[in-house]
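INFO batch 0412 | record 1 of 1 | parsing
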Amino acid sequence: MSAPTHTRPLPSGPSRPRARAATRASTRLHWWALALPALAFGLLLLLLAGSGEAHAATGEVPGLVHVAEQLLRAVG
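INFO prediction complete | emitting tokens
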């Protein structure tokens, strides 16, 4: 059983273009909305690529740590 819904009619006249502009501005993506998923994807890909070289018992630092350190130096 569905409930009846009531919608307000769109205003007519000069205020309508402003409403469209406000809607357009609110749908823009921030830079981090694309950068963070791309960074996460890249880091997960690096983790998968380096998982075949497990050096847990030898004490060697894996290549992923070197890559992460280089990224941190480049960013910071």
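INFO post-check: The CA atoms of residues 13 and 39 lie 45 Å apart.
INFO record closed
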